Amino acid sequence: MFFVGNNIKDEYKADIKQAVQDGNSIGMHSMSHDANKLYKQSQFIPEMEQESKLLSDIVGKKVGLIRAPYGSTYLNNDQVQKAKADKFRLLDWNIDSNDWKHKGKPQETVSFVSQELDGFHKISPVILVHETEDTLDAIPALVKAIRAKGFVLEPYFEDNDFHLNFKKDPDL
């Protein structure tokens, strides 16, 4: 699954379309990634509506899945209600890989995630990673560590009946 945001440039549009054709899900991550603008100035929904249209035009179907910058915790009630009205789905995470903290040390990301996975037995882990060179370097070892813990990597599709958001709202 790939969440894209303000990096939707013309040169990436073909890659986004191909990712969906290859069976991957695409989600929205905002146009600005600016917490003040999104949450305090209430631009979250307008940005998601703009991005949904842009991505839907690229992939040829409605895109309604959101990974809110900094998590859905910061959404106010009005934003939650509008997201529901727009039929957006929020997907947060239950393991932050901290890859953004481990610059130049991809093995630290792998070790951290591996330790975090020890606490997961009855619920599915959703691991947050970012698009950095270090994370890319860590992916093979991350996959190996995840499988070694007995987990199966599966794609996420918007029509899955799987809900994980910090609001604990099954309608999102």
From TrEMBL:
GO terms for biological process: carbohydrate metabolic process. Residues 1-154 form the NodB homology domain. It holds the Pfam family Polysacc_deac_1. SUPFAM superfamilies: Glycoside hydrolase/deacetylase. GO terms for molecular function: hydrolase activity, acting on carbon-nitrogen (but not peptide) bonds. Gene3D superfamilies: Glycoside hydrolase/deacetylase. This is Polysaccharide deacetylase family protein. PROSITE patterns: NODB (PS51677). InterPro entries: Glyco_hydro/deAcase_b/a-brl (IPR011330), NODB_dom (IPR002509), Polysacc_deacetylase_ArnD (IPR050248).
